[in-house]
């Protein structure tokens, strides 16, 4: 149990909570790269997944492309884009952009696939009844399909966020910031307490991310929010469905 005592001693050392290499600064760096990666992935994958799920066009291409991105190791993506980004920007192109690109590629598949699955999984009777009411396609998407699919969409965001937070540590191998620095520097210095502390911090942040998105997902599936989602739909749109039962 000595490693636990040494890890606690390292984590509670005031010197490790100050300066550029301190835990607060490394935590901020980790959150910045993870949050930015997730934001970019959402901006790319969410509209595509929703559009493909709504229209049904290019669904096989989109899902296969997402699965291909899922199969590519993040460390390999960093190594592939590193020469290109370094040539463009010798500083940030080595430390920041490769990790950012790799994390975006990692986050896109679960977001895109879940958005597609959530929208395409909406009951066809509900969509057809909305069309029968004369609703435009945009209104059907915004007022019927997206509200119903929110829990599935949030589940994809949750998975992507946890994966990015846990995997962003790889960027430290290429001099990127974040909590992964404690792992790389601990290995290079043969400092086991630093390594264990880095592992603990990354795990704690991943668990915290899981908890936050789990609460968000639970809120999205709560009875009160379901009633609010139903309230934005035309009251009559469910009538044809009931009549057919």
**Structural class given helices, strands, pairing?**
mainly alpha
Radius of gyration, Cα only, in angstroms? 22 Å
Question: Could you tell me the number of beta strands?
Answer: 0
Average per-residue pLDDT, rounded, comes to 85
Q: Give the helix level as a range of percent.
A: over 70%
Order of helices and strands: HHHHHHHHHHHH
Q: Beta fraction of the residues? A: under 5%
Largest sheet: none
The CATH topology assignment is: MetI-like fold
The CATH homologous superfamily is called MetI-like
CATH class designation: Mainly Alpha
Q: What is the CA–CA distance across the termini?
A: 64 Å
Count of helical stretches = 12
Count of discrete structural domains? 1
- Uncertain segments of ≥5 residues (pLDDT<50)? 227-245
- The gross shape turns out to be elongated
CATH architecture annotation name = Orthogonal Bundle
């Amino acid at each position: 149990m000595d490693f636990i005592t040494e890890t606690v001693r390292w984590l509670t050392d005031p010197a490790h909570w100050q300066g550029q290499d301190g835990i607060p600064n490394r935590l901020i760096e980790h959150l910045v790269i993870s949050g930015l990666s997730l934001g970019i992935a959402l901006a790319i994958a969410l509209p595509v997944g929703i559009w493909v799920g709504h229209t049904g066009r290019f669904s096989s291409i989109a899902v296969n492309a997402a699965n291909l991105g899922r199969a590519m190791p993040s460390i390999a993506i960093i190594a592939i884009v590193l020469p290109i980004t370094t040539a463009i920007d010798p500083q940030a192109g080595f430390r920041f952009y490769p990790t950012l690109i790799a994390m975006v590629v990692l986050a896109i598949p679960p977001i895109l696939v879940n958005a597609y699955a959530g929208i395409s999984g909406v009951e066809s009777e509900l969509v057809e009844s909305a069309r029968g009411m004369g609703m435009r396609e945009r209104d059907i998407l915004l007022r019927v399909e997206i509200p119903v699919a929110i829990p599935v969409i949030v589940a994809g965001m949750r998975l992507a966020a946890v994966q990015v937070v846990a995997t962003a540590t790889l960027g430290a191998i290429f001099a990127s910031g974040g909590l992964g620095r404690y792992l790389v520097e601990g290995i290079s210095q043969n400092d086991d307490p630093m390594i264990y502390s880095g592992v603990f911090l990354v795990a704690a942040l991943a668990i915290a991310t899981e908890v936050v998105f789990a609460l968000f997902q639970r809120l999205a599936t709560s009875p009160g929010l379901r009633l609010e989602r139903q309230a934005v739909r035309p009251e009559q749109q469910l009538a044809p469905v009931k009549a057919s039962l």
